[in-house]
Amino acid sequence: AKDQGRNNFQFYTSNLTDQAFAHLSMQTQIRQAIDNNEFIPYFQPQIDSIQQKIIGLEVLARWQTKDGKIIAPIEFIQIAEKTGLIIPLDRQVMLKAIHHFLRWRKQGLIDGKLSLNLAVKQLEQDDFFEFVNTLLCEVDCNPEWLEFEITESDIMTKLDEMTRKMSQLRQLGIKIAIDDFGTGYSSLAYLKKLPVSKLKIDQSFIRDLPQDEDDAVITKTIISMADNLGLKVIAEGVETMEQQAFLQANGCEQIQGYLYSKPLNADDIEIFLRQFPDQ
Ligand code: C2E
Ligand code: CA
Ligand code: CA
Ligand code: CA
Predict the structure, then answer these.
(1) Nearest alpha carbon to residue 137 among 96, 177, 195, 98
(2) Which of 87, 58, 61, 93 is nearest to 74 (CA)?
(3) Intra-chain end-to-end CA distance of the chain, in Å
(4) Ligand 1 atom closest to residue 122's alpha carbon, by position in its atom list
(5) Quick one: pLDDT at residue 17?
(6) Ligand 1 site, CB within 6 A
(7) Looking at ligand 1, which atom is closest to the CA of residue 238?
(8) Of 216, 228, 230, residue with least CA distance to 182
(9) What is the pTM of this model?
């Protein structure tokens, strides 16, 4: 038994070293990829399902490697957030996304918003507002065209600080949506005080609609909660006509998901913008 214990210990340490090594190597790769300008924005349309109108585009980061491979956020966002690399990474993606967006606006291809995902790490930066302000001036972007998505759990773990920061963004004229809503335990009392204008129902509640009764109740509750608080509401991860019909019938017209489009690179979303709604 003693021997076995020793073996377990050895296995454990070498496993830990492997993990630490993988982590470090990924960190180095992300850093290099930032230097090589390899992070790019993908865009997913947000649709008013009744008017059949594009009301916005959500920006989702992708890592395009030198050999053309596209890597999804699940592979890099966590390590980027842990190491602080999320800050230059997101700035790279944001800048590119806003440039595309402003071009499409000028061409009359879109009059909705650009939604950007924001990590707490970024909001915590002392120079974040300076960055946003400078950005808005430099690129001549009306702040009303922008929306930041912040996850409910991020807000709730640092409620006071996040409320303050969100108010500052609001003062700049930028709207805020609570992302992954329903997963972060916020109470009605807090919700009323937060300087937000939209709730985004988490896709985990949408997936099994309309069959799953619990999800149906939760979704309906979030929609009426938003309604009572004077907030807009959007559902993410909508893949089927049935899900859309359920949401519409219960008062949620704003839809995002594969039903309309996967996230697309700039060239492909431009084609989508030109063709919608006549496909
Ligand atoms: P999120 O903000 O909740 O984004 C929604 C995720 O669901 C995206 O995954 C999107 O591609 C995916 N999705 C959209 N429609 C559907 C659908 O109909 N069905 C299913 N099954 N999935 C759908 P993605 O692009 O892999 O991003 C994952 C997460 O990474 C995001 O979750 C967000 O938290 C984070 N992330 C992505 N881009 C950025 C970024 O630029 N900055 C920051 N800070 N975080 C980002
Ligand atoms: Ca989001
Ligand atoms: Ca989500
Ligand atoms: Ca998420």
Answers:
(1) 98
(2) 61
(3) 68
(4) 44
(5) 77
(6) 44, 59-61, 72-74, 77, 86, 90, 93, 117, 119, 179-180, 203, 236-239, 257-258, 263
(7) 18
(8) 216
(9) 0.93
